[in-house]
Specification:
With about 55 residues, the protein is mainly α. The protein is about 75% helix and about 0% strand. The chain is built from three helices and no strands.
């Protein structure tokens, strides 16, 4: 499976999951990445470590 195919599959998965959850806002992989990073920051994880991962 190519990178483009995996990317499309991920986008479709995210959209389907958000629809099932009843979310009305537009959610992208970037939104999830940002939310995860913010969650780690709030838990006290080092910004440098978050940038590394």
């Amino acid at each position: 499976m190519t990178l483009a195919e995996r990317t499309k599959k991920l986008i479709k998965f995210i959209k389907n999951y958000c629809n099932e959850a009843g979310l009305t806002k537009n959610v992208t992989s970037h939104t999830l990445r940002h939310s995860f990073a913010m969650h780690l920051l709030k838990k006290g994880i080092s910004l440098r470590y978050i940038q590394y991962i």
